């Protein structure tokens, strides 16, 4: 019997930046209260599940999906209130769209600029695409440092700027007027990433027609479709026509297309769930604020960032008590002793709070 020999990877074959990367880590959550990944905690109503079952039963999965995804795009245009004349491009999650945008502009020496701390995939994908990444530090209160951002734009001439609105992991909306100044100053594309739009009180979609270099990206992951993997980029047809050339054919499968279109017909159900999450967020923020030694940041998203002494021990204590959240301690220096909890159902939030109190009192 021959035993398997581990393959030797000839490292000189790989790009050095690939050797330096770490794969995106997703910890196992088996059996735990899962509050680490900004998912919608509510199951779909039974009637909707049955409608989906019928759609899936009739799906022609022996065929490639509709490459233009015409029905789904029309549904998305409708529910997102896109200004007249604006178009959408679909991605297998918005992560894929970040990658597509980077590939489109990644000439040698091209810069991708974002702020820090923010969504880690901007930096990772800049590296995938061979771009230079520039992260402008946020102010101490996590607001946009406009003078520093404008200065970095003048210095670096970024081909692509990403601003998450609301920001992950800090949960706040940057000042809209400051973002408009960034869009006006940027020599290249500015993408406002509205992954958490369903929980926020503002959006840049109405500004799309005003700026030639502005695009808005959204995902349905946080609105109850994380498992479908569906994001979109909205903007002028002139931009999207160019970017479409880089989209892999059939990147959104038959089942995600059909199921998402069905769910968007029931958009009101998803929005009502988002509304409940917003109410739970208010209660959770209040409860966190009451705990001595915890500093919680207000949030326009479906998660709350908080600071607590010995955060990693607190995170481990929560895990031992069956609650999984996100430990940000040890990553970006501005997030020292920071943890991020996704807003769950009332019951999940209560379990989290009880476990947190217990861990801190220990
Ligand atoms: N943008 C931001 C700001 C995010 O936080 C996330 C998910 N954590 C994404 C984009 C990616 O979402 P998805 O790929 O699920 O659409």
Automatic annotation (TrEMBL):
Pfam families: Aminotran_1_2. This is Histidinol-phosphate aminotransferase. It catalyses: L-histidinol phosphate + 2-oxoglutarate = 3-(imidazol-4-yl)-2-oxopropyl phosphate + L-glutamate. Pathway: Amino-acid biosynthesis; L-histidine biosynthesis; L-histidine from 5-phospho-alpha-D-ribose 1-diphosphate: step 7/9. The gene is hisC. Coiled coil: none annotated. Residues 32-356 form the Aminotransferase class I/classII large domain. Keywords: Amino-acid biosynthesis, Aminotransferase, Histidine biosynthesis, Pyridoxal phosphate, Transferase. The modification N6-(pyridoxal phosphate)lysine is found at residue 222. Its cofactor is pyridoxal 5'-phosphate. GO terms for biological process: L-histidine biosynthetic process.
